[in-house]
Design brief:
Layout lengths: L2 H16 L18 H9 L2 H6 L3 E3 L7 E8 L5 E11 L2 E12 L11 E5 L13
């Protein structure tokens, strides 16, 4: 599996989970209520680890990875972008470094856009993603 294939698989999973949200975006179609945007993000990621494990993909750290303050950016429009990093392993061998971008607003439960996953080759010379800040 290539890094691009993996990022696309994760984004498709987010879209599948998103399809189970009510049109308001603050609850699931079966009534599970969210009170802040982080709960929506958690909902979108629930079950992903298990699905990918079925095809031999695991992560060096729990998906989506640890949050570090240096990986948050605030936009002028009030949106925040948090970036979570982890390394994907296929049968124990690194196959990709993943950066999951979670766009949100602190004053809204709903997400302005689905999380985006950028994948890099496992040996890509990006900042050290496994060390806490």
């Amino acid at each position: 599996m290539t890094p691009w294939d993996l990022s696309q698989s994760v984004e498709r999973y987010f879209a599948e989970r998103h399809a189970h949200l009510a049109s308001s975006g603050d609850r699931t179609q079966d009534g599970r209520q969210f009170i802040w945007c982080g709960e929506v993000f958690d909902y979108l990621t629930e079950g992903l680890t298990e699905r990918l494990a079925a095809i031999g993909i695991t992560f060096s750290q729990t998906f989506p990875g640890p949050f570090r303050l240096l990986d948050e950016e605030q936009r002028a429009n009030g949106q925040h972008i948090r970036r979570f990093w982890t390394t994907a392993l296929q049968h124990g061998c690194p196959v990709a470094k993943l950066c999951t971008s979670f766009v949100h607003r602190h004053d809204q439960v709903t997400l302005p856009e689905l999380p985006h996953v950028q994948a890099y080759p496992p040996d890509h010379p990006i900042l050290d993603t496994e060390e806490p800040a």
